[in-house]
Amino acid sequence: MLPDLPQAELVELYRVMLTMRRFEEALILATKSGVSVGHFHVYIGQECTGAPALSLLRPDDTIFTTHRNHGHVLARGAVPGRVLAEIMGRATGYNSGKGGTLHVTVRELGVLPTSAVVGGVVPLATGAAFAAKHKGSDSVCVCFFGDGAMEEGAFYEAINLASLWTLPVIYLCENNSEGAVAGGFPGSTIAARSLTDLPAAFRIPAQAVDGTDAGEVHRAVKDAIRKARAGEGASFIEARTVRWPGSRPLWPDLLTGETDLGCAWDPSRIPESHGDWHRSQDGLLRFTREILQAGRMGTSDIVALDAAVRASMQQAVRFAIDSPHPALETAFDGVFAR
Ligand SMILES: Cc1ncc(C[n+]2csc(CCOP(=O)(O)OP(=O)(O)O)c2C)c(N)n1
Ligand SMILES: [Mg+2]
After folding, report:
1. Residue 64 counted as domain residue
2. Which of 52, 170, 277, 278 reaches 20 to 30 Å from 265, CA-CA?
3. How many domains does the chain have?
4. pLDDT value at residue 248
5. What's the distance, CA 98 to chain centroid?
6. Ligand 1 centroid – CA 271 distance (Å)
7. Least trusted range by pLDDT, from 47-61, 240-254, 295-309
């Protein structure tokens, strides 16, 4: 379902989702044309979780994210060219090219250290929530992590304290293992039957939502933020998605092609390969269908919005590629604490 939003906000949410998708498609195409960024991960297929969740935050709230951070950083309002420059190791990147894809950090947007250590952000986010409470503010922290993070010991130490100290943190687990075996990837290796049982055992309210359903995510996160701001403590939300077929562990590949939004209104455009992805698993196509069915946008509005987003991604790629690498004499700048 669509989130219950006024027209301008709904269109803006869709623009953000398209930006997330087109940004990473452009990144993959750039790597294919020879730009080297090393090992990287993409957020494709999880836009309907990150975009609505982050649209609900205030500037003074904080977010923590993982190796799959590009979409979150963009949804928080980062400039695409500077994110791409960071991923490509250029001096114009948000961290002068020294964070790279795994550690894109934008402190001025409340994107505090991104960690590629699986589970690593959970204690950090819990600490940020403790700081917010200690300062007497009503800001909140949203902590994104994958299902794999729940196999780490640090996760349990952190959520235990969040529960005991009633901290304003929303643990947003992006479980992209749904149907994973069919996609050729190992599923979650956690012994628990249901991920939501685990935080619930620590007396943290926990619920699972369909991570491709932007309306459901929006409703759940909105409620969790309201509780956290009101001093009612932490919440846990599991957003379930199927892993995008192109999300290969080392080198993402456009196995489903550049997204053809037309698949949403013309089923004859759905290719035979990965047909299930286009029909029912891709949240962006689902949102496109919903926005059309509700009469909130027409196909020509969608095509025009998408064209504008794609043009700005081309500019972002140009900006990043034309940017210099960091100068040799800056090698130690920003690396050691003074
Ligand atoms: C502590 C730690 N162990 C192992 C790894 C290697 N590693 C990188 S991504 C990943 C899978 C993480 O799965 P999940 O948290 O579900 O995130 P997903 O990639 O599925 O979004 C692993 C094991 C790591 N980065 N950190
Ligand atoms: Mg996962």
Report:
1. yes
2. 52
3. 1
4. 79
5. 21
6. 31
7. 240-254
Residue 2 inside a domain? The answer is: no
For residue 319, give its domain range: 7-330
Q: Which of 47, 67, 145 is the pocket-test mutation for ligand 1 (most atoms within 8 Å of CB)?
A: 67
**Which atom of ligand 1 has the smallest separation from the CA of 146?**
15
How many angstroms separate the CA atoms of 200 and 232, rounded? 15
Question: Which band of pLDDT confidence, cut at 50, 70 and 90, is reported for residue 257?
Answer: very high
The pLDDT confidence band at residue 183, using thresholds 50, 70 and 90, is very low
Largest distance between two CA atoms of the chain = 60
Whole-prediction pTM: 0.96
For residue 315, the domain's CATH number is 3.40.50.970
**Where on the phi/psi map is residue 171: left (φ > 0), alpha (ψ -120 to 50), or beta?**
beta
Tokens at 36, concatenated: 């080297």
CA distances from 18 to 10, 66, 209, 255, 282 (A): 12, 21, 22, 18, 12
